[in-house]
From TrEMBL:
InterPro entries: Flag_bb_rod_N, Flagellar_basal_body_rod_CS, Flagellar_FlgE/F/G, Flg_bb/hook_C_dom, FlgE/F/G-like, FlgG_G_neg, LlgE_F_G-like_D1. SUPFAM superfamilies: Flagellar hook protein flgE. Belongs to the flagella basal body rod proteins family. The lineage of its organism: Bacteria, Pseudomonadati, Pseudomonadota, Alphaproteobacteria, Rhodobacterales. It holds the Pfam family Flg_bbr_C. GO terms for biological process: bacterial-type flagellum-dependent swarming motility. The gene is flgG. Its main location: other. It comes from Agaricicola taiwanensis. The keyword Heme does not apply. GO terms for cellular component: bacterial-type flagellum basal body, distal rod. Residues 4-34 form the Flagellar basal body rod protein N-terminal domain. This is Flagellar basal-body rod protein FlgG. Residues 96-159 form the Flagellar hook protein FlgE/F/G-like D1 domain. Keywords: Bacterial flagellum, Cell projection, Cilium, Flagellum. The keyword RNA-binding does not apply.
Length: 261
């Protein structure tokens, strides 16, 4: 019975929907996390009577056909890159991006990854790195005797050095943005990787046209809304239950048919 398999596709789709929602909820406190949503499509149809075909020699046309669907499938889990709340941390190396853009991260294998998580630290050599020790492009080194580090809205890093009245500029943090941010590949650790779907990176610095600005001593929160996620979870659960009831009903109909034989 076709209804049995159709309902099964609905159950599998809603199971993945619940898994996506659970991941969003689990990352409510993850810095700069971007929530995902699930996209669905209906599957192929069996056409028993095609709309628009002639039913007589006089040209009478069928106004509506008979199409029997075969279920639903999941086609995408795109990320929603809306701005998360910006909260103060009072840490001088913490940076929040207000607007579009990603920090460029130099990976150990020589490739470049991207992140909006600006919770940076200094490594043993004085370089600005991520919490996992990956170098933040362009690899700015803070002198050991430096004090009063300042990072302005454009990403320019300045420090005060002993014996100098004016702050010394150490460099400027590099940023990137993409035409299709949803096409980026998530690789964990709050990092993304460029793909053919995202398009090539558009390099620049904070404050330029199309790029957001930076705020020192702040971090961007996840853009997960607890109320929305719980509402979506309830809807997914109800949809799963309805599909399960269809499976049960189809089973009862098959049982009745079997008993007739």
């Amino acid at each position: 019975m076709r209804a049995l398999y159709t309902a099964a596709t609905g159950m599998m789709a809603q199971e993945l929907n619940v898994e996506t929602i659970s991941n969003n909820i689990a990352n409510m406190r993850t810095t700069a996390y971007k929530r995902q949503r699930v996209g669905f499509q209906d599957m192929l149809y069996q056409i028993n009577r095609r709309a628009g075909t002639a039913t007589s020699e006089t040209g009478t046309i069928v106004p509506a056909g008979v199409e029997i669907g075969s279920g639903v499938r999941t086609v995408a889990t795109p990320r929603i890159f809306t701005q998360g709340n910006v909260t103060p941390t009072e840490k001088e190396y913490d940076l929040a991006i207000r607007g579009d853009g990603f920090f460029r991260i130099q990976m150990p294998d020589g490739t470049t990854s991207y992140t909006r998580d600006g919770s940076f630290e200094l490594d043993a050599e004085g370089q600005i790195v991520t919490v996992d020790g990956y170098i933040v492009d362009p690899g700015i080194v803070v002198p050991e005797d430096a004090s009063g580090i300042s990072i302005n809205a454009e990403g320019t890093v300045e420090v005060k050095l002993p014996g100098q009245a004016e702050p010394q500029e150490l460099g400027q943090l590099q940023m990137a943005r993409f035409i299709n941010r949803s096409g980026l590949e998530s690789i964990g650790d709050n990092l993304y990787r460029e793909t053919g779907a995202s398009g090539p990176e558009i390099a620049g610095v904070a404050g330029q046209e199309g790029f957001g600005t930076l705020l020192q001593g702040h971090l961007e929160e996840a853009n997960v809304n607890a109320v929305t996620e719980i509402s979506d979870l309830i809807s997914a659960q109800r949809a799963y239950e309805m599909n399960a009831r269809v499976v049960s009903a189809a089973d009862q109909m098959l049982e009745a048919t079997s008993n007739l034989r």
